[in-house]
Every structure is written in structure tokens, then in C-alpha cells.
Design brief:
By secondary structure, the protein is of the alpha/beta class. The protein is built from twelve helices and eight strands. An eight-stranded parallel barrel has the order 1-2-3-4-5-6-7-8, surrounded by five helices. Bound molecules: flavin-adenine dinucleotide.
């Protein structure tokens, strides 16, 4: 169980996303084989926005768990799903021997009307966590936000809601990506004061293409320190130089976290084993 892995002093885990098309599974398996060789403690698999591609999440998670024999964490979101939809996703996971999930609310899909949004079966991730732990026996983790979730009025209210997720049964948290460790250290202090006692994994994403800043990073709401924006400005026109600089930045970030006692690192691999391998080599 992931909870047991995180009871140790140090872990390194990876996040991958499932293929967008059915014809891309072989390539995804090759990517996973290469990531497995780096010996992560567990690998998490994302869930398509609004509940799309849940079948692909289960298929990739199953390959990780049943073929590679590595612990896996299947993400699941509830914003676009009824109770029965969630139960069918749970059944598919259980058929594949998967009982560890990262239980998320998800972002409101653009085409979801107000009435549908306001009458959704699960209002918050904490409701999904309560349902999954009490009704299905799955083990849940949840998401946390070192720079606050974008909808939260304040860090204080966000932490109160985080504590609720722990009280509802979240066994650990995985953080949103961040590039400035000081935010993370301050967040850990505040979380401790709020009574968050479960392990927290620090989410690190290497910036390896200039495009990432326009998409994933902007959506995450994470601040970009000047040192990182300078790198992107300097190497923006040289993809391989930018990739190497992004790896170097992530390695320095992780080593600083480790030196400051952060034991659990969750690497957003973006399905790039070469980059993940270079980071692992740099931090061990
Ligand atoms: P919640 O915990 O419900 O929080 C959402 C907001 O509601 C916060 O502002 C919170 O403060 C507030 N809130 C929570 N509980 C209450 C309450 N009881 N009363 C009032 N307000 C409350 N998205 C995907 O679509 N697929 C993925 O695979 C995926 N993986 C992710 C992995 C990680 C590690 C992270 C950090 C995010 C991931 N996301 C994913 C994005 C996530 O779905 C969004 O950030 C979403 O907007 C919030 O999800 P949540 O589970 O944190 O929601």
C-alpha cells in the first residue's frame, strides 16, 4: 500500500498520463518499461479531464501493477461523474487488482452547465474520499496546493479543506507542482499547524520545453521564479539546451528539498524516461 511506502523515510514516485489514442498503448508500455528501470516506489496515472479516458487510466495502471509489479496509484475525478459512474470506474480498477486511488474533484468542464455543476453528486474531493473509503474499501490519497488552490479564498480556508480530506480518510497528499521551494516549506509549516499529520509528497515537474509554460504550468497557477524564467529566456530557441537546463533546475530543487528534510518526491515525468533518468541520476 502507498501509505506503507510513505511511512518510510524517503520515496521517489512518478506520474504518467495514459495514451490519448488506442493505437498508442505499445509506445506507452515501452515508456513505462524504461521508467520502471529507474525503480520508482510507485507510479501514479492521471485521469482525463471531466472523467474522460478512465478506461485508459485503468489499463495503464494495470500494466504497472500486474506486469511491472510496481505499486500504482490511479487518479480519479468526480466533478463530471454520477455515483454510478464512479462505481463502475471502481469496479474496473478492482478487476485489475488496483485499490489505491488519488481521489480528486477535478476541474469543471467548459461545457458543464450551472445546474449540472451545482447538483453534482460529489461537491468536493472530501465527499469522494468519504464515499470511496466507506463504500468501496479503496485506499485514497488527495491533492494539496503549496501556493493555494486557485478557487480558495485564502490559504487558511484551503488548509481547512485539506484537513477535512484527511479527516475523511485521505492517507497522504500529493502536491501540485511548484518551482520555488520556499512556498513548499511555508506550506508544510502551516499544514502542520492545521493538524495535517499524513505524509505529503512534493510534486516536481522539470521544465523541458518552452510550451510547458504556456499550458500545464499556467493551469497549475504556480509561480515562476526569476531564475527559471531567465533559463527559459536564455535557452528558449535551443530545445536540447533548454531540456538540460530544466533537468538541472529540477535536480537542484530536489536536492534542496532533500537537504531540508523533505523525504517524498513525486516527479511529473511527462512520460519522458530520458529526462526522468537524468534527474534520478542527479539526485542519487
Ligand atoms: P478539492 O479538494 O475539492 O478542492 C477544490 C477547491 O474546493 C479548493 O479551493 C478547496 O479549498 C475547496 N474545497 C474543498 N472542500 C471544500 C468544502 N468542503 N467546502 C468548501 N470548499 C471546499 N485533474 C484531472 O482532471 N485529472 C487528474 O489526473 C489530476 N491529477 C492531479 C494530481 C495532483 C497531484 C494535483 C495537485 C491535481 C490534479 N488534478 C487532476 C487537478 C485537480 O483536479 C484540480 O486542481 C481541481 O481543481 C481540484 O481538485 P481537488 O481534488 O484538489 O479538489
Amino acid at each position: 500500500m502507498i501509505k506503507d511506502l510513505l511511512s518510510g523515510r524517503q520515496t521517489l514516485s512518478f506520474e504518467v498520463f495514459p495514451p490519448k489514442k488506442d493505437g498508442e498503448f505499445e509506445k506507452a508500455y515501452e515508456t513505462l518499461d524504461k521508467l520502471a528501470a529507474l525503480k520508482p516506489d510507485f507510479i501514479s496515472v492521471t485521469y482525463g479531464a471531466g472523467g474522460s479516458r478512465s478506461k485508459q487510466t485503468a489499463e495503464i495502471a494495470s500494466y504497472i501493477k500486474n506486469t511491472l509489479r510496481i505499486e500504482t496509484l490511479a487518479h480519479i475525478t468526480c466533478v463530471g461523474n454520477k455515483r454510478e459512474d464512479i462505481l463502475s470506474v471502481v469496479n474496473r480498477l478492482k478487476e485489475n487488482n488496483i485499490d489505491q486511488v488519488l481521489a480528486l474533484r477535478g476541474d469543471r468542464p467548459k461545457d458543464m452547465g450551472d445546474e449540472q455543476y451545482e447538483t453534482r453528486d460529489f461537491a468536493h474531493a472530501s465527499d469522494l474520499i468519504t464515499f470511496l473509503t466507506t463504500q468501496t474499501g479503496l485506499h485514497c490519497g488527495g491533492a494539496c496546493y503549496p501556493e493555494k488552490h486557485y478557487e480558495a479564498f485564502s490559504m487558511e480556508t484551503d488548509l481547512k479543506n485539506l484537513r477535512l480530506k484527511q479527516d475523511c480518510g485521505a492517507e497522504y497528499f500529493v502536491s501540485q507542482l511548484f518551482f520555488d521551494n520556499d512556498y513548499y516549506y511555508r506550506f508544510l509549516e502551516k499544514a502542520e499547524k492545521k493538524g495535517i499529520t499524513v505524509p505529503i509528497c512534493a510534486g516536481i515537474m522539470p521544465i523541458t520545453t518552452a510550451n510547458q509554460l504556456g499550458t500545464t504550468v499556467t493551469l497549475s497557477g504556480s509561480s515562476i521564479p526569476k531564475a527559471l524564467s531567465d533559463l527559459i529566456a536564455k535557452y528558449g530557441d535551443c530545445p536540447e539546451e533548454l531540456r538540460k537546463a530544466g533537468v538541472d533546475y529540477a535536480v537542484r530543487q530536489i536536492n534542496d528539498l532533500k537537504q531540508n528534510g523533505v523525504g517524498h518526491i513525486h516527479l511529473y515525468t511527462m512520460n519522458r524516461p530520458k529526462t526522468a533518468g537524468e534527474i534520478v541520476a542527479g539526485i542519487r
